[in-house]
Amino acid sequence: MSGFNGTIFAYGQTSSGKTHTMYGSGSELGIIKLAVKNMFDMVNSDTNREYLLRVSFLEIYNEVLRDLLEPTKSNLKIHENSKHEIFVGDLSEHIVFNAAQVEEVLQKGDRNRHIAGTNMNERSSRSHTIFRIVIESREKAFTGAVKVSCLNLVDLAGSERVGQTGAEGQRLKEGAHINKSLLALGTVIGRLSEDGGDRGHVPYRDSKLTRILQPSLGGNAKTLIICTITPSPDYADETLSTLKFASRAKTIRNTPEVNE
User: Fold this and answer.
1) Known binder of ligand: residue 16?
2) Which of 58, 168, 33 is nearest to 114 (CA)?
3) pLDDT-derived band of residue 197, with 50, 70 and 90 as boundaries?
4) Which residues hold ATP (predicted)?
5) For position 189, what pLDDT does the model report?
6) Can you list the positions of beta strands (E) in the chain?
7) How far is the C-alpha of 250 from the C-alpha of 115, rounded, in Å?
8) 14 a known binding residue?
9) Does domain 6-250 have CATH number 3.40.850.10?
10) Does 230 appear as a known binding residue?
């Protein structure tokens, strides 16, 4: 709300609670709804500035970008402007004035996302989703610069092993794309966490996910990663892998700046 970009995403194996953490349930608010509530509380209590909030909602399904608010818009392209800002072309944005309108947008998008059952999860996310809120604000006296920042709220699909999920056909293809993009994310995090300034090439372009999140992973954003694990001893290898990811991610230092 003060002009910094922000990103929150949940990372972990399938069925470990990522979607519940981000979206919550009927009785328990998730990160996204808590963030939205907090935002509008601040908007309504700030007597010095006026705000404009816009939201968009997309999914990355089998490495194809799709607008969840206008599902006919598929195979969207990723672009970079002269300021090296990454954006998705032709993605629809909706102006929102209160938390209830955001809830309507979330429900509409959620109805359009890819979800299916596997042996491990009856409502398994088959795509990564990014709910993006752009916040513009200026002083009511029209003095000073306009601040423009964005908050990315990301629900990653979970890594999965065929032997555990029983995936076949289309589910198997989805799982392969999910695992490939998560591997790319792990590689980027690993490269960014290396000591010293000479990291060499960081392969952001290896997946749509890492390309879109490039500013969040290694640049101008305050980023929070929630790593989820399951207590089951059957998945100890996946738990260890998630904890190693978390250990590497903790060492990354971004350089967020106020966007004016």
Assistant:
1) yes
2) 58
3) low
4) 12-19
5) 93
6) 6-12, 49-61, 64-67, 78-80, 86-88, 94-96, 115-116, 124-125, 128-139, 147-155, 222-228
7) 30
8) yes
9) yes
10) no
pLDDT, one tens digit per residue, over 61-110 is 989 999 999 999 989 999 999 888 899 999 999 999 999 999 999 999 98
Q: How far apart are CA 55 and CA 69, in angstroms?
A: 10
**Where do we find the tokens 């971004």?**
254
Give me the amino acid identity at 119: N
What is the model's pTM?
A: 0.89
Residue 81 tokens read as 């402007």
- The answer to whether 18 is annotated as binding is yes
Was 17 annotated as part of a binding site?
Answer: yes
- Residue 64 DSSP SS3: strand
Question: Where does the pLDDT of residue 26 fall: very low under 50, low under 70, confident under 90, or very high at 90 and above?
Answer: confident
d(CA 223, CA 42): 20
Residue 232: how many CB atoms within 10 A of its CB? 12
Q: Which residues contact 136 (CB under 8 A, 6 or more apart)?
A: 51, 52, 53, 54, 146, 147, 148
Burial of 156 (0-12, 13-18, 19+ CB in 10 A): buried
The whole-angstrom distance between residue 81's C-alpha and the CA centroid of its chain comes to: 21
For residue 48, give both structure tokens. 């010095």
What does the pLDDT look like over 238-251, one tens digit per residue? Answer: 999 999 999 999 99
User: Is 72 annotated as a binding-site member?
Assistant: no
Tabulate helix, strand, coil % of the chain (nearest 5).
35, 25, 35
**CA–CA separation, 229 vs 32, rounded Å?**
20
Average pLDDT score over the chain = 88
